[in-house]
């Protein structure tokens, strides 16, 4: 399903393709560049599709700022319903029928796992994909791919160390999605715990086709764990948090960033019922009043009011889409007049010290020839019943 097919002007300095460039680079002409992406606009992870809607809106905002040299972005997005076979179908359509210059921001671990070899095999830049699965950052295996989320390995190590400090030698339970998303979290915890993992860690998976995760939560409670990590997508994270309340289990509860959205995860459970839940972030929470007068948040609110009017401002997925749009803009600006696929890949690994207006202070986008990850820093945050409150220092997976 084609959600939108946007043609928008791109404001990039000096971005005028030569006739030779236009002829040699698929998806690039003197007046246009085609960029493709795939999102779960429907299906079990449809709430994450709002990231795509935020990115689409940002591309439109570039157009409304006038653009430069008449170049337009033809931004083509399709729905895969969080289904790997559908993702493959859509990726082939974008590459072979739409002939996009490159892919940007495809969302979903299972979907990217299904398409990454095809896109790399076609030598199509697969820029800043929205998944933290650690294997996708292996640029030796996937030389055309960069990632747009902190790796699940980095995130998991932050949680594992926090749980260890909170309950030294305490038991830890993990509810995980049974794919690369969840397995990265489990493997990172095992690595941090080392020889204590067998005695301290209980991990139970779920399939995205499961109707609920109620039985998994009941079984995890039986482990006697003091800490619980929920490594899931929003639908299942909300189910897990609801079941915790139903059975009166109150461990130190941590949820992965993918499921930290207020509207998609916390509100369905009840904001007062999830007080004390811990997550991590690399961005400012638009619901936190402490950012009300922040220049970056004012910029985001103005953007939101104009391009996403009527949407839920509390939904962090839209903010993620906004940040992705900023990275796309930076990438294309750095490419300048050279929009060859090789240069898109080179520039995606050459973003230095990019401070986005909605990123937390001290957290920047840094990529280089040895790093395919846009984000490698995080800060812990705790839900206080009203907003997420950041605490502690900026951390990395190595700390």
**Main sheet attributes: strand count, strand direction, barrel closure:** 6 strands, mixed
SSE string: EHEHEHEHEEHEHHEHEHEHEHHHEE
What is the helical fraction, as a range of percent?
25-40%
The H-level CATH homologous superfamily of the largest domain, spelled out, is Response regulator
Could you characterize what this model shows?
It is a single chain. The N and C termini lie far apart (43 Å). With 399 residues, the chain is α/β, with parallel strands linked by helices. The chain has helices at residues 19-24, 49-64, 84-97, 109-121, 152-166, 180-193, 197-200, 214-221, 234-247, 262-269, 295-307, 316-335, 341-348; strands spanning 2-9, 32-39, 72-79, 102-104, 126-129, 145-147, 172-177, 201-206, 227-231, 252-255, 278-281, 378-383, 388-395. The chain has a 6-stranded mixed β-sheet with strand order 1-3-2-4-5-6, sandwiched between helices. The protein has 2 domains: 2-149 and 292-368, Rossmann fold, CATH 3.40.50.2300; 152-281 and 379-395, Response regulator (Rossmann fold), CATH 3.40.50. Residues 7-23 have low confidence and may be disordered.
